[in-house]
Amino acid sequence: MTQPNRMLIALSGIAAGASAGAALATICTMIANKLVMSGTMFLGGDPTNLVFLGIGLDVVLAVLVGWRTSLGVDETWRRGVVSALAAFAAVPLGFGSAGVNTFSMMLSNELLSTAMMPAYLVILVTVTVLAMRLAKKSRGATPAP
After folding, report:
1. Model confidence over 14-44: pLDDT tens digits?
2. Domain housing 108
3. DSSP 3-state percent helix, strand, coil across the chain (nearest 5)
């Protein structure tokens, strides 16, 4: 049995948590954009509030994925640090989806404008999956609880 690479597991946990949370925020931003374009109200208020709800859920998901992915790091406090760093990294990535959304509205090319948000989402989900696989591979034979 080989020893797990704790540094690689920790970095993978941060990347997986941040990108998973940002993917959730991106989905909320896409839904908010569709609601704004259709003129539909969200919970009796402005549909753009869904973006801020997505950022709140972004942090929660980043902490959960960061905690779960950093399973090979033995100390609890280190797993907590990985989760906290994932949450701090997820917030700007989540707000980045609003920036990508705004930038895509400014483009004159309709095809490119329509494809930017789904492309950002695909990139975030891909990073999440690859980071989780890398963490699992780096853990080696460490059993899951």
Report:
1. 999 999 999 999 999 999 888 888 887 766 6
2. 6-138
3. 80, 0, 15
In a domain, 143, yes or no: no
Q: pTM of this prediction?
A: 0.87
Whether the Cβ atoms of residue 53 and residue 28 lie closer than 8 Å to each other:
yes
Please tell me the total count of domains within the chain. 1
- Which residue(s) pair with 88 in the sheet? none
DSSP 21-46: HHHHHHHHHHHHHHHHHHT--BTTB-
Tokens standing for 25? 């925020």
Give Cα 100 to chain centroid, integer Å.
15
Q: Kindly state whether residue 145 falls inside one of the protein's structural domains.
A: no
